[in-house]
Design a protein that fits this description.
homodimer; 107 residues; Glutaredoxin; four-stranded mixed sheet; 4 strands; 18% strand; globular; (2Fe-2S) ferredoxin domain-containing protein (chains A, B)
Chain lengths: 107, 107
């Protein structure tokens, strides 16, 4: 794939039911990843944006976690309903969606 | 985890044996990831460097692939023997290991 302008990592970490840390998988990472991929396809933005799933990004309590590079912006509690806004405003527009940005204590 | 200065994504994509694209898993991604994590632990560099596994990064032929942000440097054909050099020179020293950098046609 071409080198993207922005690269989105959607934490897809799984853990067993009842695990004390929980997981982004248990917080909806799979439908979230699908929503990002669907939006990428719909906009045919493959030259600008890459969407990749990843292992644990750290602050599991606030999942589902989504990390955007090169800025290193971590979004928390992201749901499929947020995907269009993140895509338009940040991934294509360059301006982070502040209401979803992790607190400085988290990242 | 604290926001790292450099974030390493080790492609750990698996595919069935005989799949035409191959995979980074088949090219040694798992021992490579373990080597990065071991080096991170040895250096106790958790405040500076994060190591995360990821899904497919694209150019599977050249795996195992390792992507470093915020620079967006893709390394290819990485083996556990390369880990100390990548750690010292790039992750802590800020200078990419040019002999491993993907060709511009790949990334």
């Amino acid at each position: 794939m071409p080198r993207p302008t922005r690269h989105v990592f959607v934490c897809s970490q799984q853990r067993p039911p009842g695990h004390p840390r929980g997981s982004c998988a248990a917080k909806g990472a799979s439908p979230l990843l699908q929503a990002f991929w669907a939006e990428l396809q719909k906009r045919n933005a493959y030259d600008q944006v890459a969407i990749t799933y990843s292992g644990c990004l750290g602050p599991c309590d606030g999942g589902a976690n989504v990390l955007v590079y090169p800025e290193g912006v971590l979004y928390q509690r992201v749901t499929p309903d947020d995907v269009v806004e993140v895509f338009e405003k940040h991934l294509l527009g360059g301006e982070p969606v502040t209401r979803l940005v992790a607190a400085p204590t988290e990242w």
